[in-house]
Amino acid sequence: MNLILLGPPGAGKGTQAKRLEERFGAKQLSTGDLLRAAIAEGSELGRKVEGIMARGELVPDDIVVDLIAERISSPECAKGFILDGFPRNVSQADALDRMLGQKGAKLHAVIELGVDDEILVSRIEKRASEMEGAVRADDNVDALRKRLKVYHEQTAPLIAYYGEKGILKTVDGMADIDAVSRQIEEVLETAA
Ligand SMILES: Nc1ncnc2c1ncn2[C@@H]1O[C@H](COP(=O)(O)OP(=O)(O)O)[C@@H](O)[C@H]1O
């Protein structure tokens, strides 16, 4: 099962990706998590992306495309993958298409979690206040606004991109976590 979870920051992609991982044995690949791990390690890559991420901007395509290309063919993805945070623009989606073409693999579905901007801002503020000292560098209101702007300008066009390919499934991301999971299971049954 090869899936993409699409949706704005704070839509709950990570939470649903973890649940899908348990359910199907497919591997969650979160570019945000991979980049944060590189920063935590203090690697050259981490140093390169740290400031960009803190500002809520996108890191260069070649960096995230390489991160994904490396993992998608690894044994951990033997049962498939759940992409969370990638692709984030059309050029990344085209790169993914080429990668999958080379492997002879295909995407089963792209699941869009639909959420209102206002609800997102309050979710992120809540996340920031709950995490206190451990807050992510980009979980402040300015960076969030920037991330939402980038989402609308660069990532939202992927809704039409995958809609045209006939593999887009939209669920209501504002429902509670279990209800979102159930909706995803339902749309996957029809996608199989
Ligand atoms: N596919 C990607 N392309 C470019 N930058 C990315 C990508 N994935 C993650 N990032 C960087 O990591 C940051 C955090 O991403 P992520 O963890 O997915 O959080 P969120 O969905 O809450 O914004 C982004 O704002 C961006 O700087």
TrEMBL record:
Oligomer and partners: Monomer.
Record's keyword annotation contains Transferase: yes
Catalytic activity from the UniProt record: AMP + ATP = 2 ADP
Cellular location(s): Cytoplasm
GO cellular component: cytoplasm
This protein's UniProt keywords: ATP-binding, Cytoplasm, Kinase, Nucleotide biosynthesis, Nucleotide-binding, Transferase
Gene: adk
Listed GO biological process terms: AMP salvage
Presence of keyword Transferase: yes
PROSITE patterns the record matches: ADENYLATE_KINASE
Native organism: Kaustia mangrovi
Positions that bind AMP: T31, R36, E57, L58, V59, G85, F86, P87, R88, Q92, R136, R147
Entry's EC annotation: 2.7.4.3
Protein name, UniProt field: Adenylate kinase
Function, as annotated: Catalyzes the reversible transfer of the terminal phosphate group between ATP and AMP. Plays an important role in cellular energy homeostasis and in adenine nucleotide metabolism.
